[in-house]
Amino acid sequence: MTDTTVSLAPDRTEGDPALAPAAPGRRFRIAAVGGQNLSLIGALVVVLALFGSLNDNYLSWSNMQVIGEAATLVGLLAVVQTVVIICGALDISVGSQAGLASVVSAMAFTSTGSSAVVGIAVALGVGVFAGVVNGVIIVYGRVNPTIATLAGLAAYKGIAQLVSDGRAQGYVLNDSVFVFLGRGKIAGLPVMIWILAVVALAVHVLLTYTDIGRNLYAIGGNDTAARLAGISINKYLIAAYSLCGVVAAVAGVLLTARTGSGQPVSGSEGLELKAITAAALGGCALKGGKGGIGGTLLAVALLGALENGLTVQGINTFWQNVAQGALLVIAVVIQQRRNKERRIGLPT
To answer: Full-prediction pTM beyond 0.70?
Structure first.
């Protein structure tokens, strides 16, 4: 059965000359990096060079750490969004899940006599529950993932506002655990960046080197063939959404640690769009079956560098939203052209 399921995974290099094996004697294999990733690296270099020339402090080590910390929450959500998109689905509710986890972690922390362990554990539990609910609604309620998680976006946000009365809750900066998570450093790098690196590496290994990952690609590539091969699609989808919930809860805990209190909306609103944009820019096919963590992280870095550069230059934050929306459209257009999709309303 293992051999059969592996063979169903789509060829992630098919149809892309940049990803084809290098010719004999060629010293540099583009396939080792990927054409999509090379484009992102080039765009990132351009952004860094542009804003670096406009502001001497932009390329400073301290500002690079600021960019990394700011991009951590988006990065965590983008990593698990990549998993869900590879399955051929979508999770629009991850930002609201992070906000709910943030509030719950702070409230549990204060109500249990300042126990960070309890606060974090309760937040993770809420994340698992929210993810399972999303998966069950999609699988057994037969609801389109976009509609189901759009409902979750509103519902989890509403629950966070109800339990917190719409205000920031608790104060956690008197606890060493939360201070370490939000402001600590290991080997000169913020702890938040290390957490993102660990999560990203774990998911990369899962997708690349395990039968679970190959089956996820198979589900997104051709769910009918995957089902006929004996892959339990329902279990995989629920597990993918559960993973989304857990990592969204981690992002919520880091949001609490970074801001010092539980935030029902502030800091988490809009994260879902940024996560989807990063996954799409990173090469995830929104129809499923294609994508990877490396490209997603490069896209997260690009978005973080662009957002920070616009902020440093004093450009209105509304323009950041415009740029983000434009990048998402551009990413989808590039995907459609690469897949040779016909234009709407025209014959094939």
So the answer is: yes
